[in-house]
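Sequence in, structure out.
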Amino acid sequence: MKPVKIPRRVDEPPHLLLWSADELAPMLLGLVVGMFINKALICFLIGLLVTKLYSRFRDNHPDGFLLHLIYWSGFLHTKARSMKNPYVRRYLP
């Protein structure tokens, strides 16, 4: 019988070496864009800086705060009826 691998946390994003997937995306995006414009090192370092700032922001706020901030500012539009309009600040009965 083979042993079954059980994850430690259910909602944890996939990791590659030291970084999670959401931290790795700016570095890889900077590297790819940098390869297209022949400035790979500079764009990779900018992606590394963005990752550092994002991880500092994420560690100081609760889970899902960035998605909530994007929705509340009005950039995330949904057709769900359960979500209220973010521009309405006061609801009257």
